[in-house]
Specification:
The complex is a heterodimer.
Chain A: H1 2-23, E1 31-35, E2 38-39, E3 43-45, E4 51-52, H2 54-65, E5 73-77, H3 83-89, E6 94-95, H4 103-108, E7 110-125, E8 140-144, H5 148-157, E9 162-166, H6 169-178, E10 183-187, H7 188-196, E11 204-206, E12 213-220, H8 227-239, H9 242-251
Parallel strand pairs in A: 1-5, 1-6, 8-9, 8-10
Antiparallel strand pairs in A: 2-3, 3-4, 7-10, 7-11, 7-12
Helix pairs in contact in A: 2-8
Chain B: H1 12-42, H2 46-60, H3 64-76, H4 90-117, H5 122-130, H6 135-150, H7 152-165, H8 177-188, H9 191-220
Classes of the chains: A alpha/beta, B mainly alpha.
């Protein structure tokens, strides 16, 4: 008897789990948006649990244009390696997470936008001089493993430089601060976020070298019906001046001059 | 299906070769340091026993990722311990990773070996003592040779776990299999086939190890 009770309990628990997963993510009323939780300036969860950053505000604006209220938006973390899967499985409805448009990714997902053009750059200690592009070969660089920036360094502009890949950008900052690393390299939009953080203010500065072009797009599932609407929303955001305001708000403190808003449909 | 597998662009075999090198070097290091630790834990000197016990408990219960990241962030990039390599080079990360794996894996080797020492009948050590052998002689001539033969199977377990643990070295940027996997997923945007490919690669490494050492364990065991 006791055994039957236990198995009945287990069965109902299993049923509950199944239904819970079935309705998890992307319900009818509301929109689930994938963002970064750990990139200052772009998408960061602060101490109160709120989300702040340029990508977050862009996501809010687009969702608003698509007809969703503020409280109907659910933010999900979209780590770089999982972005295509999240869209493919329908766990998120769109991704606004410093998602560079590349040919390989366009085979898997649709991109609206781009809404921003970033460039690969170096973050240096304020006491070091900005190197010439040739002199980067002599530096000890740091980046995040598996990122496009790390690959660019090794392939294109500094094949002889020492490159230390870490899991997160914060780990690079330890070595940079202690002088054991010379520079941190990735998109300038991300670097600006770190330079502007309160605990780092005045310690690090952007070199201002435009080493590559990264077109940030809004990731949507393949053949999404929302593609046109999202493109229109981005165009409207640029037109009504919101885009400019957001750029000023999130990148202004780092003295970072962003490029003008890109044309919809522009590709690298 | 497998069009992501561009061997000119991705050094698949090089990455797995690094995994093998990490495993072999860390394995040898752990065997040596683990044996010393086991000797300390059974030694008659209280301070050595205490050191061995504390060491094993601290390192065995610390997450491996933490040990590896601490080797890099703390020892190298903060305290400037370069292990005769330059900052930001593969050789520095590689050496730090081997150091971390030896610190961690040796605790498991030590405990496996200690259980092996317990399989040697007490009478043997007593007889050796009665013949006038010193502690070191009793350990190296009588007890350890028999203990090793008893623990080939548990040590094979440790080695297989170590092979898979080497993926943690990706956290500090050692160019081994797991790091290449992350690179390929980021660049090619095909999570599932790439993950399956690498899982298969690890099976190719660990399955023969397990089968071979299982056979050795049967041959080597002391029949009592």
């Amino acid at each position: 008897m006791r055994l039957r009770k236990a198995s009945a309990l287990a069965a109902s628990a299993a049923a509950l789990v199944l239904t819970a997963t079935a309705c998890g993510g992307g319900g009818d009323d509301g929109i689930t948006i994938g963002i970064k939780f750990d990139q200052p300036g772009l998408g960061l969860q602060n101490e109160e649990g709120d989300f702040v950053g340029f990508d977050v505000d862009v996501a809010r604006y687009i969702a608003g244009e698509l007809g969703y209220e503020e409280d109907e938006i659910t933010f999900e973390e979209a780590p770089s390696p999982e972005r295509e899967q999240l869209l493919d499985r329908g766990d998120v409805d769109m991704i606004v997470a410093s998602y560079s448009i590349t040919e390989e990714r366009e085979e898997q997902v649709d991109f609206a936008g781009p809404y921003f053009v970033a460039h690969q750059d170096l973050l240096l200690r304020t006491d070091t001089e900005v190197p010439t592009p040739e002199a980067i070969n002599d530096l000890t660089l740091c980046s995040v493993s598996g990122s496009t920036s790390a690959e660019n360094v090794q392939r294109d502009f500094a094949p002889d430089a020492n490159l230390q890949p870490f899991n997160t950008y914060s780990e690079c900052l330890t070595g940079l601060e202690n002088g054991t690393l010379d520079a941190l390299t990735t998109d300038d939009s991300i670097l600006a976020g770190y330079a502007a953080q309160e605990q780092h203010q005045g310690k690090f500065a952007l070199a201002g070298l435009e080493l590559s072009d990264e077109y940030y797009g809004v990731g949507l599932p393949k053949d999404s019906e929302d593609l046109e609407d999202v493109n229109d929303a981005i165009a409207q955001m640029v037109e009504d001046g919101t885009w400019e305001e957001l750029v000023q708000e999130h990148f202004g403190p780092a003295n970072y001059e962003a490029d003008a808003a890109p044309e919809i449909g522009a590709r690298p | 299906m497998f069009d992501f597998l561009d061997l000119d662009r991705y050094d698949l075999f090089g990455a797995f070769w690094t995994t093998v090198q990490l495993t072999v070097l860390s394995g040898i290091g752990s065997l040596i340091w683990g044996t010393i630790l086991a000797a300390m834990r059974v030694s008659p000197v209280p301070i050595m026993r205490a050191f061995g016990t504390v060491y094993v408990h601290v390192f065995r219960n610390t997450p491996l990722t933490l040990i590896i990241v601490a080797c890099s962030q703390l020892l190298a990039y903060t305290l400037g311990m370069t292990m005769w390599a330059d900052f930001g080079t593969q050789s520095l990360s590689f050496r730090l990773a081997v150091l971390g794996f030896v610190l961690y894996t040796s605790t498991f080797v030590c405990e496996a070996l200690r259980s092996g020492i317990n399989t040697v009948p007490v009478g043997q050590a007593e007889a050796a003592r009665a013949l006038g052998l010193s502690f070191t002689q009793v350990l190296t001539l009588i007890v350890l040779p028999q203990a090793f033969r008893a623990v080939v199977a548990p040590l094979a377990n440790v080695l297989i776990a170590l092979t898979k643990n080497t993926t943690v070295a990706a956290a500090i940027g050692v160019a081994e299999a797991a790091l290449l996997m992350r690179d390929m997923i980021e660049q090619e945007a095909q999570l599932v086939p790439i993950a399956i490919l690498f899982a298969f690669g690890f099976i190719v490494l660990t399955l023969p190890t397990g089968l071979f050492l299982g056979w050795v364990a049967k041959r080597a065991a002391v029949k009592r």
